[in-house]
Amino acid sequence: MFADYTWAELGSIFAMQGFAGLILFSVLLLMALGLAIIFGQMGVINMAHGEFMILGAYITYLTSNLFSTYLPDLFGIYFFIAMIFAFIGTFLLGSLVEWTLIRHLYKRPLDTLLATWGLSLILQQLYRTVFGPREVGVTLPDWMMGSYAVSDSIEIPVNGMIVMVITLVITIGVFLFLQKSRRGKQSRAVVLNRAMAGAVGIDTARVDRFTFALGCGIAGIAGATFTMIGSTGPTSGQLYIVDTFLVVVFGGAASLLGTIASAFSISQAQSIMEFFMSGSMAKVLTLLTVIVILMLRPQGLFSLKVRR
Amino acid sequence: MLQSKLRSLTPKNDVISFLILAAILLVALPLLFDIFRLNLIGKYLTFAFVALGLVLSWGLGGILSLGQGIFFGIGGYAMAMFLKLEASSPENTKIQSTPGIPDFMDWNQLTELPWFWEPFHSLGFTIFAIFALPALFAYIIGAAMFKRRVGGVYFAIITQAIAAIMTILVIGQQGYTGGVNGITDLRTLLGWDIRTDSAKYILYFVNSILLLATLVVAQYIRKSKLGRLLVAMRDSEDRVRFSGYDVANFKIFIFCVAGVFSALGGAMFTLQVGFMSPSLIGIVPSIEMVIFAAVGGNLSIFGAVYGALIVNWAKTILSESYPELWLFAMGGLFIAVVLAFPKGLAGIYESYVQPLLNKKFKSTQDK
Amino acid sequence: MKKEISSSRLGTTRRTLLKGLAALPAAMVLASSSYAADVNTTGLAVTDDTVKVGILHSITGTMAISETGSVQAEKLAIQQINDMGGVLGRKIEYIQEDGASDWPTFAEKSKKLLVNDKVAAVFGCWTSASRKAALPVFEQYNGMLFYPTFYEGLEQSPNVIYTGQEATQQILKGIDWAKETKGAKKFFLLGSDYIWPRTSNKIARKHIEKLGLKVVGEEYYPLGHTQFNSVINKIKLKKPDVIFTTVVGGSNVAFYKQLKAAGIDLTKEKPLVLTLSVTEDEILGIGGENVDGLYASMKYFQSLPNDNNKKFVAEFKKMWGEKSVIGDVTQAAYLGPWIWKAAVEKAGSFDVDAIKKTLPGIELTTAPEGYVKVHPNHHLWSKSRIGHAKADGTFDVVYESKDLIEPNPFPKGYQ
């Protein structure tokens, strides 16, 4: 299949394909980060994770309308403000959901699955009622949509780079938060041993609420980011949910490092295979490989050694 | 707690419950509804098979599968393949470039029947496949996971991913599977037209009786030593393991049983509805099936049947009268079941209705 | 006479009364306007002043996005027909059911409409899968379905009128145009992974090869897929002149945004992108600025300059809001009630068997797309058109076939 091309052409294609893999890696990681906290750290199966992402996307849509109507001069930078709004909005909804729903279910992880599935249905219909059943188009400033030509034949999409930068910043932020900050340490302590954490004076209920809301807030940022590359509609969130869970489970649920490694390996496998076969088959093969590996190594790529 | 539960499950109670359910399915519903509604009820009841399987694997065994749609699909597709081959006789398919093969294969330039379709010319093999294929598939999944002690949440997510893969595969291989349209336009079973009203009546009764039989099997398993071991395992797996039992094999067995039940439901679905499509095997239908069991009460085999009936009924009614509202209502229902009634309908019955009945019963006895 | 009948509605059952009526001297019946018994001999829901029809689309679920426009168009057509006095003097009442993007539900609801509600016709279904699921029901209970979507062909049922284009009508002229006007030689075929894109690409490939041109790639992605960077790289490698796409739904948004981000500017036409699946409806979600320069091959665009269309667009916006847009399928859905009305009036009866006889040959001169005619194979004769998308989300029509194209659902040599 490569016979007709010069080495230069092939080189630039592989460079671009490698970059495509990196974008996919960033997308998967960004999707999974919020869930890695909620599912990995807290053990809550949040089936409404996709809907939280879409809420972030809708907030971005609203912000873009707001700026184009009232502050057209600042339209070029609205996106970053929208991301902050998206974080705040989903964070608040996350706290509300934790307070009304999730906190009653910590001892019944499988039941959180049913309850959050119900929540996702409600949110979907809410979006449909408020924003209409059609997808909405989020207009982006021109500078974010173009591409950057590295050489004559290598072109790098700007939005891809933005996704990568955002992912990098958020990942580092989450890492620092969990490892260094007081709240982060508290939340890890609660995950490891709830009773003991409570005994040493940590307000476990508050830590839970904050951790869950933080996971949702990150989902909101992910949703805002994905308006650059994907669609925003009432049911778009459902598309993400399987991929997201697989990334987290494959990485080993309680390990952030594992999530990163798993997002990386899945994205590279998928984008390499996509280049040699039809997208459908590449997807099936990737998922199959992940499952086979999970069957051989059920604890995922990385796992904390915890006494259960 | 456990003792009181065991007491409420005395054989006498179960026999009464069974007779009530049989009377509802076989007498009351057919008398109350016309054939259109009855056919719908028959369709809902096919999901009760799946819910029954989930009561065994999830309620008793603690194994939550989010991929029961896979087995529903295996049963449904096996039956659909048989019916489709019968509907694609060379006379019926004269206009095709290759007569005698299903229409969708002809559209996809297949010129001969794929080898794995061949055995489905035989009804005997088809029925065998409806039992054997899901059991085999469940065995492979179960053996791979349970032997390595994968369970709980992991198992749920992995089965969900398998359901996703199945859907993509079935849709992608449309020359062999009918793709996203599924296998449609099924007409006769051994020459007997399954589309007529009288056939729908008969199929409804066949379906109901089969369901009742499945119920008896489920009850038997629950009452057996195996059932009690499963409960013990769910509550403390290590303790059972240290008592010298091979925990994994029990889990595999019960997962296979749940799979076969689902496949039975799928086959009956195809017979009553007249087609099978990938929209019934994916992630969303699989979760809905779990919901049926949860609403009914995941410990109650009778609850499973009522759960499947009531949720589907509500879905149809709500979407007929308030299409915009039904997702709100459904979502609210799931949350309510989890938060307020974790044991589902069966729990409501046990804690509110049964004491009331007992009281009445006792007070009349006292007199 | 008429009064007597309507006042007796409260009394004995309608049927016995109507039977009595049928026994009256024929001259009397002919003298007054027709009664329900004459125009309806098969027990449809027709009274002396109303007739019931069904509307069956997804209002919930993933397909609600696409089907909303069709529901709106059908309601508009029904209202307009009622304002003109209805069909055979009867006002149309519609019963709307939700298919919920779930194919078994479509079958179930079709059966409800036909068996319980006894509607005279159903306007509905959108995806091929929903039609395939509902079709046996329509054939069994002898209902009449008006199906609006452009689709893959390979079907011809006496109980369905296909008001959208079948694949050959949409594809062949588009490829001819790309060859003749744009000098295209190499094509890259890309689609979502299901029957319509696969069948369309099959026909496209045969036609491209017949013209002596080349297909340099054919790719499919699962429905809802949102990562197209790999295929875009493949496209860059193969350097086609035309990307021929049949990507549907939310994937479209991702595809065009990523195409733009990868530096493929549609307005430069290197390569040119020709789609079968992006109408004005989809552009709302993709964003006009992302498809500026895209070519679409279909039979209708909102900007068609004829008077029928201007009137239709104005009334549609009056009913559904200034912001609403009209795509190819929406227009095709609008034709359904009008074709049904014409067929019923020609037959003088609502009976499905009667209108089956009169449907072939029905003409509409007032269709927004211009003139259409029902072919004996139950598809419509229609023109092929190419539209060129602008940043504001509308299309300029850059090509229109001279004659109506004959529908050919089972094209010889393309299967």
What's the SSE blueprint?
The complex is a heterotrimer of chains A (308), B (367) and C (415).
Chain A: H1 7-41, H2 49-70, H3 78-100, H4 109-131, H5 142-145, E1 147-149, E2 155-157, H6 158-180, H7 182-192, H8 194-199, H9 204-226, H10 236-251, H11 256-276, H12 279-296
Antiparallel strand pairs in A: 1-2
Helix pairs in contact in A: 1-6, 1-9, 1-10, 1-11, 2-3, 2-4, 2-9, 2-10, 3-9, 6-7, 6-9, 7-9, 10-11, 11-12
Chain B: H1 2-8, H2 11-32, H3 35-60, H4 68-87, H5 103-107, H6 123-146, H7 152-172, H8 174-177, E1 188-189, E2 192-193, H9 197-223, H10 225-235, H11 237-242, H12 247-273, H13 283-296, H14 301-321, H15 326-339, H16 344-366
Helix pairs in contact in B: 2-9, 3-9, 3-12, 3-13, 3-14, 4-6, 4-12, 6-12, 9-10, 9-12, 13-14, 13-16
Chain C: H1 2-7, H2 14-22, H3 26-31, H4 36-39, E1 50-57, H5 64-83, E2 91-98, H6 103-116, E3 122-124, H7 128-140, E4 145-147, E5 160-162, H8 167-182, E6 186-192, H9 195-210, E7 214-221, H10 229-238, E8 242-246, H11 250-261, E9 272-275, H12 280-286, E10 295-298, H13 307-320, H14 328-347, H15 352-358, E11 363-367, E12 370-374, E13 380-381, E14 385-389, E15 395-400
Parallel strand pairs in C: 1-2, 1-3, 3-4, 4-5, 6-7, 6-8, 8-9, 9-10
Antiparallel strand pairs in C: 10-14, 11-12, 12-13, 14-15
Helix pairs in contact in C: 5-14, 6-7, 8-9, 11-12, 14-15
Helix content range of the residues of chain C, please?
40-55%
* Separate helix tally of chain A: 12
Largest interface, Cβ cutoff 8 Å: A-C, 49 and 45 residues
Q: pLDDT average of chain C, as an integer?
A: 85
Continuous helix count of chain C: 15
Compressed to H and E, one letter per element, the order of chain A equals HHHHHEEHHHHHHH
Helix content of chain A: over 70%
The proportion of residues in beta strands of chain C is 15-25%
Q: What's the end-to-end separation of chain C, in Å?
A: 59 Å
- Quantity of strands of chain C, as a count: 15
Helix- and strand-based class of chain C? alpha/beta
What does the model show?
The complex is a heterotrimer of chains A (308), B (367) and C (415). With 308 residues, chain A is mainly alpha-helical. Chain A contains twelve helices and two strands. Chain A has one domain. Chain A has a two-stranded antiparallel ribbon. Chain A is globular. The termini of chain A are far apart. With 367 residues, chain B is mainly α. Chain B has one domain (2-366). Helices cover 74% and strands 1% of the residues of chain B. Chain B has a two-stranded antiparallel sheet with strand order 1-2. In chain B, a hairpin with a 2-residue loop joins strand 1 (188-189) and strand 2. In chain B, helix 3 (35-60) packs across helix 13 and helix 4 (68-87) runs parallel beside helix 12. The longest helix of chain B has 27 residues, at 197-223. The model of chain B has no long low-confidence stretch (mean pLDDT 85). Helix content of chain C is 42%, strand content 18%. Chain C has 15 helices and 15 strands. In chain C, strands 7-6-8-9-10-14-15 form a seven-stranded mixed sheet, sandwiched between helices. In chain C, helix 14 crosses helix 15 (352-358). The radius of gyration of chain C is 23 Å and the shape is elongated. At the A-B interface, helix 4, helix 10 and helix 12 of A face helix 7, helix 13 and helix 15 of B.
